[in-house]
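User: I'm writing a tutorial on reading structure tokens. Could you give me a worked example: one chain, its sequence, then its tokens, then a sentence or two explaining what the tokens reveal?
Assistant: Sure. Here is the example chain.
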Amino acid sequence: MPIYEYHCRACRRRMSFLVMTPSTFEPECRFCGGRELERLFSRFSSPKSEEQRLESLADPASLAGLDESDPGSVARWVKKMGGELGDDLDGGEIDELAERAAAEASGPDGEPWSQSDEL
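And here are its predicted structure tokens:
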């Protein structure tokens, strides 16, 4: 009984389906009802101990390329760290949070806040 993973192009969410008869299966997004789903290659994992996962997170190299002032960079880092911890973070949710953080970090004119901006 294979489980297939799909990505909805409309709402950018990921979902899994248990498919008994693949030849007649027509996936539909359970979040938005969209029919434009792209089949993904399922992730597989190699067994790591809890200690090995925590060691990989403590490695300073895991912070390489992280720009804490860039919401997109932080979102990529959160996805990576979530993967190390075994969480399956939905790309759409992370992207949405990054966009929201970028909007909150911008001033009313859409430009980033600076230290010299008056309140």
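What the tokens reveal: The beta strands are 3-8, 14-18, 37-40. The mean pLDDT is 76.
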